[in-house]
Write a structure and sequence with these properties.
Layout: H1 4-19, H2 26-33, H3 39-43, H4 47-76, H5 83-100, H6 103-113, H7 117-124, H8 126-139, H9 145-162, H10 179-195
């Protein structure tokens, strides 16, 4: 049987994912969890803190695995892993979590649509994001800083789209193989996009770690 914090986290995740963070009140969460009215304030303090705990309950282990995989990739490549190895370390753990917990990507999609995902990421993911950005920047030294920032911006949108709960076809049905397959395709796509020379730069044949 779940304890009170577990009941609140489960209820909040269901409601935030289906109705959105802004639309859900603490009173609704308390009623859904069937706990004492004072419980949410005692255990979490506020609705925003509850949201962060809902997200980090799943994302905490994901971030731990991400860093372990990046450490391994850097060790295997003497500190200079390929772009695809860095992307794999970042994205494959979240694909497994999304497969095991289909409500979670729906929740993250809701946060994106409500315009609060960036704040959630800044509060809870920034050290991990920074570590990966440093690794990616090192892997594509040919890109000017502004171009690199644009490509990371595009990458964020592509990840959000790939991790949405339903695939969206532009002109024909998508042959979807689940989150793992989506992410494997996305790694190939983003790897090529990050390594491509910037506009106006002559394509060159990379050597060493960037080939």
């Amino acid at each position: 049987m779940l304890d009170t914090p577990g009941k609140l986290l489960d209820a909040a995740e269901r409601l935030f994912a289906t109705e959105g963070f802004s639309a859900v009140s603490l009173r609704q969460i308390i009623a859904e969890a069937e706990v004492n009215v004072a419980a949410v304030h005692y255990h979490f303090g506020s609705k925003l803190e509850l949201l962060d705990q809902v997200i980090m309950r799943k994302a905490g282990p994901v971030n731990k695995e991400r860093l372990e995989l990046l450490d391994r990739a850097e060790a295997d490549a003497n500190g200079n892993p390929e772009v695809e190895a860095i992307l794999s370390a970042f994205m494959l753990p979240m694909a497994q979590t999304a497969t095991d917990n289909p409500l979670f990507p729906k929740l993250m999609g809701r946060m994106q649509s409500e315009g609060i995902l960036s704040d959630v990421i800044e509060r809870n993911f920034q050290p991990v994001i920074t570590r990966f950005l440093v690794a990616l920047r090192k892997a594509v030294p040919h890109l000017p800083d502004n171009e690199f920032r644009w490509r990371i911006h595009f990458m964020q949108g592509a990840i959000a789209c790939a991790m949405s709960s339903e695939p969206h076809a532009v002109s024909h049905p998508v042959d979807d193989g689940g989150f793992r397959k989506r992410i494997e395709r996305l790694i190939v796509f983003l790897g090529a996009g990050l390594r491509t020379p910037s506009a106006g730069e002559k394509p060159h044949k990379p050597s060493g770690k960037n080939k």
